Amino acid sequence: MLPGLSQAASTADLQAQLARDFPQRLLPAAGGQQALRECGAGPALVLLHGIGSGAASWLQVAQQLASQARVIAWDAPGYGESSPLESPAPKAEQYAARLLQMLDALGIEQCVLVGHSLGALPALAFARSAQAQRVSHLLLISPALGYGAPQRAEQRQQVRRQRLDNLEQLGIAGLAEQRSAHMLSPHAPPQALAWVRWNMARLNPEGYRQAIELLCGDELLRHGRPTMPCSVHCGHADRITPPDSCQDLAVALGASFQPINHAGHASPIEQPHEVARRLAAALTPPLKGDCP
């Protein structure tokens, strides 16, 4: 009883910090509205969350960086109070188009762009689009490769079926209860587990289904290498996008690779100080010719 009460208390405290330090904004968007959280002032830092998460997952990272940057985290289309995309099976370019609308509405001409997990797909799609000059540095944290490549057809079918079946059988609350621990290292503190679960429990079924189709129907590497400095980061205990696969992906993208100690897949929640430190370093452009 006491551990449960403790986790509930810590989550309530984080919710209070969320409202105070990282408040929500709503912007008009094609087909409805776009929700985001924002704090701080300075160079823009734009954060895109993963498939089982939301803008609030960046709270502790944002708190660390608010004195150095204008920190913006979106709720992806179909997440939180963001309207879903029109297509039931969108590609990364459609998410990137919504991202462009958000940046235009916020008056952001250039930013450091960060994609965590599935957020890496729209982040790279945007960085490889005609808007590439608006990204000064691209950071991918535990990036999802996607299952859209022809050689992954069998795996794609299995992942889609499993995720949709779990959604149907467990519901969002059951998914949050069952999947949260997989997002963290075995030694993650109870507060981190509680915050991962709280964020996952806020998923919307329609937006989650669209994200499943993005994961299963798209492929990160089809977008090609980014032209701006790019770095890949991954928790050393990540069981979802393991360090070896993230390092291989970094090589394919021509990016640097850095593991994050004492972290699983949800490193922005488990190791927010270290993640914030790395994002802060990206806010300072490297000298011409330097590697990120």
What's this entry about, in short?
The chain is 43% helix and 16% strand. By secondary structure, it is of the alpha/beta class.
Task: Give a verbal description of the structure.
Strand 5, helix 4 and strand 6 form a beta-alpha-beta unit. The chain has helices at 2-21, 59-65, 92-106, 120-127, 153-179, 190-200, 205-217, 243-253, 267-270, 272-282, and strands at 24-29, 32-39, 44-48, 70-74, 111-116, 135-141, 230-235, 256-260. It contains 10 helices and 8 strands. The termini are far apart. The longest helix is centred in the middle third of the chain and has 27 residues, at 153-179. The model is unreliable at 1-5 and 287-292 (pLDDT under 50). An 8-stranded mixed beta sheet has the order 1-2-4-3-5-6-7-8, with helices on both faces. It has a single domain (2-282), classed as Rossmann fold (3-Layer(aba) Sandwich). With 292 residues, the protein is an alpha/beta fold. It is 43% helix and 16% strand. Helix 5 (153-179) crosses helix 6 (190-200).
